[in-house]
Structures are given as structure tokens and as C-alpha cells.
Amino acid sequence: MSPRPGFVLEVDGSTPPTLFWKGEGFTLERLPEGSRVVYAPEPLDPLKDPLGAIRHALAHPVGDSEPLRALLRPGMRLTICFDDVSLPLPPMQAPDVRQMVIEEVLDAAAAAGVDDVVLVAALALHRRMTEAELRHALGDRVYEAFAPHGLLTQHDAEDPDNLLDLGRTAEGEEVEINKRAATSDLLIYVNISLVAMDGGHKSVATGLASYRSLRHHHNPTTMRHSRSFMHAPSSELHSSNWRMGRHIAKSGVKVFQIETTLNTDTFPSQFGFLQKREWEWNLKDRATYAATAAALDATPGRLSRQIFHSIRAPHALTSVQAGEVEAVHELALESIWRQQGVPVEGQADILTMGLPYICPYNVNSIMNPILVACLGLGYFFNLYRGKPLVREGGVLIMQHPTKGDFDPAYHPSYIDFYEQVLTETTDPTEMHKLHEESFATDPWYIHLYRTGHAYHGVHPFYMWYWCAHALEHLGRVIVLGGDPKVVRRMGFSPASTLADALEIASDVVGPSATLTHLHTPPILLADVQ
Amino acid sequence: MKALLFERSMPRFAASRLASTLGSGRGARVAPLRLVDADAPRLPGASWHRVTPVLSGICGSDLATIDGRSSRYFEPLVSFPFVPGHEVTGTLDDDATGADGAPLPAGSRVVIQPVLGCRARGIEPPCPACAVGRTGDCEHTAFGHLAPGIQTGFCADTGGGWSTAGLVAHETQLFAVPDSLSDADAVTVEPVACALHAVLGAGIEADDLVAVVGAGTLGLATVAALGHLAARGLLPVPRSVVVGARYAHQRALAGDFGATSALPSDQLPRAVRRHSRSLATGGTSSGRLTGGADVVFDCVGSAESIASALDVVRPRGAVVLIGMPGRLSVDLAPLWHREVRLAGAYAYGTETAGPSPRPTFALALEAVAALGTGRLVSATYPLERFEEAVAHAGAAGRRGAVKIAFDPRLSTRGGRR
User: Fold this and answer.
1) pLDDT value for B414
2) Is residue A519 part of a domain?
3) How many domains does chain A have?
4) Domain limits at A194?
């Protein structure tokens, strides 16, 4: 039986309670009758022969590109860049798709006699990956072949010796990227497009860029004019990246893009109920839910975090395409929309969502309050094409325990952002003007970013900018189940129960408001008419 | 007439010290402080005048005395029994001449500059410090025709502000209160003067990063003084003033008084690191700073606050102790290693900033008028409720207050305002 498409359920008296994530746990909430629940499509069937599909893509590129083997020659300088630990979510079961692709690329390079090969993790301003994370993404064989010889590197956006200024776009955007990649005869980018925002020119123009370059599109103005990030034609973030990507190509940097897409098989079998629609839960699902929810409630936070972060998703490859960046990306987008797209009629007054334990920036770490805001307002709110699921001036209710906890090793500047910036302003434009530069150029954050596993000093600003469109659009943001003090610090309203949250929301949208619940993960993209 | 009298009693000192382990101000119940019938003190000489207190604050040094936590250093510098209260605004009982030489008719509102220097003690010639107006540094505070006592409020002969019987003040101690100042404003002149004196003596240079540890009355007055003096060209303009304050209302007030950033105390090192763009050892930014603030004012005087100040000061920077410390245990390795200057800042005298030398109290009266520091007075009590008042002062931060004062006028009416 082929997988069923996404679905919008109208809640009536017989609808069972709906699952809401709440960080490292979940609850069942009874939504008001008449509410709508948007469910993700079921996972697409994986490619039957992923290695064969990869080989085929390399040999049959799309767009204006020769097959990979034709691009490889002895004596050339080859750099293979790959997406970092922020993708996919949760991390996928081994073998990771990056490993599968890179092994094929390396085989081809070896066959062509290419000796000068360097791997680069395209971190942008993300934290450096740990050895375990690199081994997981690339496999032990690749890791052992490259890392001991210094040929497996991680992009350093603060290393002046390894950045190359490629000039400016016609719009005046500075383009500065990884020098090794930019000066190679061929730059191969191995991507995972988990959502429609990923991939395309964003891979190189963002993943391998410096702060000087990134600031042209990672700013409040661009973010407010990206409606949404998931639909490139309506996204100024993407327009800027596309200008930069085309500029990079014009500068003579030859990019061979390999984009992969995964299905939404997100949770292993022991969490199978998370993949199902509640009314289809069988006795085992209900029992598993009850036992899991109760056990998690009784488990110390640190331990439950460890449990969840050890989840490896059974994601499987649904497509792979290689060649010229834009042609490749178009095909990847088709696969993504085929997997994740759900048509939704009209907007609601209230949008509800439960936020899970993970976002791109807290893999193996703590979901701090700024990341909670970013996941809800930056990512989930933006999982749309056309119009947001909630009307302008409407209310967003997101459930998450939202505590004032931070990982000091991974997110040091987040702590100062929370204590020193959010206490002063929650306005993205204001903080951009007053504080961004000092955080971005802070020598201590730069030191920790370059030598430890810290996100760049400016990163919490970017997380807040991701929220800019939602903050401008919404009449109120309510955090259900969060620490009230923390929630208020971010300018949101706390609520302890869904009933309370709806009562608070009624002050903004009236008593007979319409409500849509975004039932994710698994990830979906709402095509709102 | 009533006065709160502090007597020498070793058993009660011990009891109050024990009680104060439960919290600052908790020693009042067992301390050698009691409400007594009292007469007005005798006038020690011709230039002395009687003052009837209107408001008299409870200061950190008063709390330390009542709680038995004061350093034994002060033993020969005070005389028992004494009536506490050195933050005093009151009215003159008779015609007098003020410290500036101007006549003050009976009934005038005055604030008392409480230091009992050579002139008040009838010592001629004055010591070198008093000769140049640095009365806070007087070498004769235990000599002359008065009993020992560094200030009014610690001297058996002068009385103090915690009294309906009044106190006596030398004309060099009298400063007229302009009509534009409320009584609450006036009672903050003394702590504001302390802050002005400390700030002016700290060697602050233009574009310095200044940190303030603690935001009780002295901390807030220090923040206010920094902004006030810089705005008037009496102090080089600091780049930033960062305040570590335990309580939210203190942080809000610090912001109102011009702090660049006011944060919970445990966030101060992070904030100073950010503002100084320092590195930090220890793997994360919670480690020890390699740089730091140019000048740090410790406005608490505890071992923790001094350690905190040493944590955030830069190499060769200065830590200025405004809050009164006692016998403490502090790791001075960073002070030694980073060549930090540790300086005390006591009281007031004559300030040389500006076109001509001026008494700190004169500057303080202007500052109080400009800053409205009367808002720091959170509650006033009659003398009869001294245990409650002292407990309130000891827990001021926790209870959302800043300055607690006695209003002896309430003693005839009872109750708290």
C-alpha cells in the first residue's frame, strides 16, 4: 500500500486527544471541537537501491554539468564539503547518507587518480563537530583515512588565512568563503535537504561563509522578508544566497552539488506511536505512550535528555541528484514537497504546536530558551508556503518546558544574550543595532568557536532573527508549560494548561477563535491556500 | 524624650552575633540596644548646636554594630554608651552658623556631616588631614574634648539620630537643606556623599569600564554618583558601568541611575567579560577573566563581595571598598598576581574636582537634588519599633526595599509610614 498523504483532521466529539510534544516528553491534549489538526504524510517508500541511485546521480548529473568522473583528473585539487551535525534531525541510523555519498565520490576520485582531497564540514557559524559526530556522519573508514592526516577539516569562519574574498554581488553583498574550497579545481557539496529551506546555493554561500558574508542575509530585515524560508521565491534569505551562489560560480568556483532527500521515518519502532495518527493507535501504542510518558515524567531531565538524544532516526533516502546547483535543488525540492507537503485551506486565529527535544542547534545538548523560541517561531511557524497557518495578529501556543538552562560549552554566548540582551530588548532590529557586532567580534566567543565546540558569538542573534517574521506577524506568543520567568524574559506569555492558554489567547482573538494544530514531528510543510 | 542607646555588654554582643547568623539585622532583639528615656546631650562648646532629628537612616555599619559583626578595630575609636544614627536630617533648635559660614536660623533643616574631626574636637592646630579638609582621614578621632568616636552616632558625647532627645553638632557639621529637597532626599545625603567621595578618589579615567558589586543604598548611590559627576564634567566619562545586584528592584533602580547594565550578582563576571572583551580561562566563559574592569567598587564589604570584585578587576586595576568590611577571609592571590590596587573609601571631606575645592556634602546636596535619591527611602519606623526596623533594614533587598530610616516624629504617634 502506498503511503498516505498528509491530512487535515477536523476535531469532533469522537476525536481522541491529540499528542503534543513538550521537549523530552509529550502530553495528550483535548482540542476544542472544530479545531483542525494538520498531520504529516506518511513516510515515502525509500529508494530500493540507494547506492545504485547515488552512482546513477553522479554519472547522470542534471543541469549544465558533466558526470563526476569527467570532472576528476590526476593532479587536481578536490574539496568535498558536507552538511554538519545540524542535519538530519534526529541524527539518522548508520550509515548516514553523507557517508554513502562521500564513499562513492572518494571511490570515483581514487579511480581517477586524484590525490589532493580534503573534506570540509560546512559549519558556517555552528559549533565544531566532535569526533564521534564526524565518525557517525562519514563512517569510520572515511574518518580514519582523512582525519589523522589533517585532511578532514571543519570550516572556520574566523580563520583569516583560510578565507577568500570573492568580491561583492551586484547588491553589494560581500562574498567570502572557505579558501580551500574556493581555490579547488572542484568543490563537491554533499547535502541533506531535510526541509525546503536547505540546499541550493545556501549550501556553499552559507555553509562555507564568514561572518562578514553571512551578515548580509542573516539579519532582521532579510528574515522579516522571508515568508517563508521554506519557499525560496518568497524568501529574501534565499534571494541573497542565490545572488551569492551565482557570484561564487561567476568567480570561477566550480561546484558539483549533490543533494539528498530523506523520508519522514523519524522515530524508531519503540516510539512508533509518534509516527501515527492518534485515532489509529492500537492497544500497544496506547500502552507504550502511557508507559513512556509516565516514565519520562519521573526521569531526571539530564537522563531523559540523554535518552532522547540517543535516538537514531530510521530516515531513508528518497532521492539523490547531482550536478549544477540550481537544477539539482529543483529536483530535491520536488522530493521534499512530495514527502512533506500538506494542502491546508485558510488560516486560523490560533496555531498550536508541541515542541520536541531537538532543533538543528542542540544536537547532543540542551534546548535552551532561545532555541525554543527559534524552533517554534523560526522553524515550525515557517513550515508553510503561501500564508502562515495562523492569521496576522493571531496567537501561537507552543508547548515546551522552557527552562533557563544552557550548555556553557556549546552555547556560551547564548547565556550572555539571555542575561544581557533579552533583559534589554526582545526587538530583533534593536538588538541587531545595539549588540550584534560586539557579540560577533568578541574575542572570547571567537576563541571558543575556533578551539572548542561553541557556536559563534553572534549565533543567538541569528536564532532570534529567525523569529522576526513570526514576532511581527503574531498578536501574542504563549508558551504552555514553560518556566514563567523565562517565558516572560523572552516577551511571551506563560500558561500552565491548554485551557489557560486558550483563555489568554481569547483576549487577543476573541472567544470563538479558530484553531489549527501543527502535528509535527514528523516534519510537514503546509501549503496554505 | 526617647533614644535608642547602644551599650557595651559582652554577653549581648555575643548573643547578637549569634542571632545575626540567622540573617542581617536579626541581632536587634538581643543586642545591647534598647530604648531609654533620655535627655538632650550637653553642648560640648560654643560652636555646638542642638539638632532635633527628623529622619535618621539605618546604615550597613549600624547593622554590623547591632549584629556584633563590626571589626574590633573600631573599639578604641568609639565610646559607650552611644546613640546610633549618623545619617541624619533634622532641624536646628537655635540660631547657628553652617559649615559654609552662612547663618542658619533656628528651625532650619540641616543634614549632619557626621565625621568628628579636629575642629569639632576643639583640637588646634588640626591634624594635617583636617587642615586640608580631609576630615574623613582625621588623626584625632579619639582625642580632644569629646569622647572617642569617629562619627556622630558612635560617640557618647554627641548623641545620634535615633533619638527624640536630639543630638549636638558642631557648626562645621551643619549643612543647610534647600527647600526643594524632601526629608527623604535629605537623609540620603550622607550615603550619597560617601559614594561621591569614593568615586572621585578612585582614579577613574575616560573610557574606563567600571563595575559595581552590590546595589543596596551605597551601590545605587555609587552608580548615581558616577553618572552625576561625569555629566557635570567632574569625572572622566566611563565607557560602561556594570552592576551586579542581587534583587530585581535593585537592578531596575541601577538602570534608572544610569548603569549601562545591571545584572544578577552571579552574572557580573560574564557581563564584565563581555564589556571588557576579555578572555577567560577554564574552558567556558564561566572561568576566570584574563582582563576585566578598570575600577571595581565593592559596595557590600563581605568576603564574597571582595572576592567577586577581585574576580572582575583587570590586571593593575583598582578595587575600591566602599561597603564597610570586617575581619574576613579572602584569597588575595589574584590581587598579588594581577597587581591590583585595593583601596578603602571612607566617608567624605573636601573634593578637589571642579574649579575650586568643595566639601563633599555640598556636592552631595546638589547630587541628591538632581538625582532624587529620596526614592531610595522605602520605609520609616518610630523608635519604639526598632527591632522591626533593624530587621527590615537587614533584609531590605529581600523585602524589596533599599533604605530604612527612623522617623523620631512617629514615636509620639506610633506606627510606620
Assistant:
1) 43
2) no
3) 1
4) 65-262
Separation of alpha carbons B390 and B386, rounded Å: 6
Q: Which residues of A touch B (CB under 8 A)?
A: 408-409, 412-413, 415-416, 419-420, 423-424, 438-439, 442-445, 447-448, 452
Does some domain include residue A320? no
Q: Which residues of A touch B209 (CB under 8 A)?
A: none
pTM of the model: 0.89
Query: What DSSP line would sit under A362-420, residue for residue?
Result: -TTS---HHHHHIIIIIIITT-EESS-SEEEEEEEEEE----S---TTT-HHHHHIIII
Find out whether B30 and B409 touch, Cβ atoms under 8 Å.
no
Cell numbers at residue A295, please? 516514565
Picking from A520, A483, A23, A482, the residue whose alpha carbon sits closest to that of residue A297 is A23
Is residue A436 within a helix (H) or strand (E), and if so which, with residue range? helix A436-440
Give, as one character, the DSSP assignment of residue A498.
H
User: What does the domain layout of chain B look like in residue ranges?
Assistant: 2-190+357-412, 202-344
The answer to whether B278 contacts A416, with C-beta atoms less than 8 Å apart, is no
Nearest CB partner across the interface for B285, out of A412, A424, A438: A412
B184-195 pLDDT, tens digit each:
999 999 999 999
Adjacent-strand bridge partners of A398: A353, A479
Chain A hits for B261, Cβ within 8 Å? 420, 424
- Domain B2-190+357-412, what fold? Quinone Oxidoreductase; Chain A, domain 1 (3.90.180)
Give, in order, the Cα–Cα distances in Å from B52 to each of B147, B183, B263: 21, 13, 40
**CATH number given to B202-344:** 3.40.50.720
- Digit-coded pLDDT (tens) for A163-203: 999 999 999 999 999 999 999 999 999 999 999 999 999 99
Give the burial string for A165-199 (b: 16+ CB within 10 Å, else e). Answer: ebebbeeebbbbbbbbbbebbbbbbbbbbbbbbbb
Interface confidence, given as ipTM, is: 0.83
| Lowest-confidence segment of A207-211, B281-285, B378-382 by average pLDDT | B281-285
Cβ within 8 Å, pair A415-B285: yes
Test the A interface: residue of B274, B275, B281 with most A CBs within 10 Å: B274
Q: Is residue B205 a contact partner of residue B175, using CB atoms and an 8 Å limit?
A: no
Local structure of A529: helix, strand or coil: coil
Q: Is the dihedral of CA A466, A472, A473, A479 positive or negative?
A: positive
A191 in any annotated domain: yes
Distances (CA, A) of A92 to A192, A262, A266, A275, B8: 11, 10, 8, 16, 76
Residue A347 within a domain: no
What is the CATH classification number for the domain harbouring A180? Answer: 3.40.50.11440
